[in-house]
Write a structure and sequence with these properties.
Layout lengths: L4 H9 L17 H13 L26 H4 L7 E2 L7 H6 L10 E2 L5 E2 L5 E4 L12 H15 L7 E3 L5 E3 H5 L2 E6 L2 E6 L7 H14 L2 H7 L1 E2 L10 E4 L5 E11 L4 E8 L8 E3 L11 E2 L6 E4 L2 E4 L3 E3 L3
Antiparallel strand pairs: 1-11, 2-3, 4-13, 5-6, 7-8, 9-17, 10-11, 10-17, 11-12, 12-13, 12-14, 15-16
Length: about 325
């Protein structure tokens, strides 16, 4: 059975109970079926992969408690150096995202807390609004849009809805607003031209309401793991789907091995978090690209190696 964008938004507005937290924003999925799905994901067999080892005599703490950003909180392991990033780049923006004090818990949109069951090592200090919208793909789009907004690259801010409609910020800035009737979407001039942070957030919440992993995956280009860089995204489009973004990287110049940090939001809407590495505790929270054979296993999702994507703009 098909769903109109209007009915999808209605479904979203009803997703407030904990028992429905695994509902997609785009389609209403039976909880029992999702329970079976997650059982298979959690119980799936994972082939052992070669691990990056760090000599025990030089294994120092990789986390600086006093650090207030990703770059100052997380040190690269022995033998690695951070990859270069120009000060005006998306990579530099992500690497310097502000963090809440060490030990902080992730906060949901409703002010409740997400217990840290070996999922994350830090919480990004950015507001997420008070609606159940800022989930996995939304956080990725938000970070990209925030960077472009702060860089005043307004005409580059655009995302597609699940039905293919292009929601570009250039029109929103002119005072136009998006009207959804069933599966029909159009622009209507209804406000004064504005570029304030408040109106920008309203634009983002509209995008969060009608775009997600399925649409975002389609508009990003596929990248091989060998080409991985900061800002790339591991994404599985679907209902449900998931997405995590690479927020920092290091490299061993002698061996050319790459390591990276991952960030995510999740369901229900919650703050962005820096993920632990469940595969290699000595390396965690860093992930080793060389350790990924066929799959990337994160604390709450497993991606295919081929799931790596990059923004085209």
């Amino acid at each position: 059975m098909g769903f109109s964008l209007e009915s999808i938004a209605t479904i979203l507005s009803k997703q407030k109970r904990y028992s429905n937290k695994f509902m997609s924003k785009k389609h209403k999925v039976g909880f029992s079926l999702l329970s079976i799905y997650w059982m298979f994901v959690a119980c799936g067999q994972h082939k052992p992969e070669p691990q990056i080892t760090i000599p025990k005599d030089v294994l120092a703490s990789k986390i600086t408690v006093a650090g207030s950003s990703i770059s100052t909180r997380f040190k690269v392991p022995y033998g690695f150096k951070r990859v270069l990033a120009d000060s005006g780049s998306f990579a530099f923006y992500l690497r310097n995202l502000p963090l809440k004090p060490a030990g902080s818990l992730v906060t949901f949109y409703n002010a409740k807390y997400k217990p840290n069951n070996n999922v994350y090592d830090a919480v990004v200090d950015l507001p997420i609004g008070k609606r159940d919208l800022h989930q996995c793909a939304d956080a990725v789009m938000r970070l990209r849009a925030d960077y472009l907004y702060q860089s005043k690259k307004y005409d580059s801010i655009q995302f597609n809805f699940t039905n293919g409609f292009k929601a570009d910020y250039a029109n929103w800035r002119k005072g136009k607003r998006i009207v959804v009737k069933g599966n029909q979407v159009s622009w209507k001039q209804s406000e004064q031209a504005s570029n304030t942070p408040k109106d920008f957030w309203k634009y983002l919440e509209m995008v969060f309401s009608y775009a997600g992993t399925a649409s975002l995956e389609k508009e990003m280009k596929s990248i091989s793991l060998a080409e991985i860089r900061i800002g790339d995204v591991f994404i599985k489009g679907g209902f449900p789907g998931h997405a995590v973004i690479v927020v920092d990287m290091g490299i061993d110049k002698d061996t050319n091995r790459k390591i990276f940090l991952l960030a995510q939001s999740y369901m229900p809407a919650q703050e962005i978090q820096i993920l632990k590495n469940p595969n290699n505790k000595d390396l965690s929270p860093w992930y080793g690209a060389s350790e990924i054979s066929n799959e990337l296993r994160t604390p709450e999702w497993t991606f295919k190696k081929s799931a790596l994507r990059r923004f085209s703009n």
